[in-house]
Design a protein that fits this description.
The protein is of the alpha+beta class. The chain contains 6 helices and 4 strands, in the order E-E-H-H-H-E-H-E-H-H. Strands 1-2 form a two-stranded antiparallel sheet. It has a two-stranded parallel sheet with strand order 3-4. The protein is globular, with a radius of gyration of 17 Å. The N and C termini lie far apart (about 45 Å).
């Protein structure tokens, strides 16, 4: 197991990437560790990790943005990754990309497959609100 910040209990398990790691894996780990040492970052991560599935499911219906759910079929975080992706996409009214054989980081493990799909998805989006003269959105 490779640890980002073992003193905080935040780690990266090799089981999350069953196919291959990015060539710059060590640099990415270092950058994430630096980021998590910035004020407030670790607390935000720990808060996110402390949420239950029910907590996160409760906010899904509030999403009003287009989304693309990218899931590896061997993601160890879910008993049935494909079903998880389909359920999430259905709640978000999102598109899905199931990456056969990938784990938790399909964008790293199989970038040659995932990057073109993400680029296509981003290209299909409308211009950002700021580009249309809206500088900030408020949720009531």
């Amino acid at each position: 197991m490779d640890a980002y910040l073992p003193e905080k209990g935040v780690s990266f398990a090799s089981r999350n990437t069953p196919t291959k790691r990015a060539f710059d894996h060590e640099a990415i780990k270092s950058a994430i560790a630096r980021n998590l040492r910035e004020p407030g970052r670790m607390q935000a991560l720990l808060t996110m990790l402390s949420l239950s599935k029910a907590d996160t499911a409760a906010i899904l219906d509030d999403s009003a943005v287009r989304a693309l759910v990218v899931m590896g079929t061997k993601d160890p975080d879910f008993p049935n990754p494909v079903e998880e992706a389909q359920n999430l996409a259905s709640r978000l009214h999102a598109e899905t990309m199931i990456v056969e054989g990938a784990g938790h980081y399909p964008h790293v493990e199989m970038a040659d497959q995932v990057a073109p799909r993400i680029i296509s998805f981003l290209g299909s989006l409308s211009p950002a609100p700021a580009a249309a003269g809206i500088t900030r959105l408020h949720r009531s």
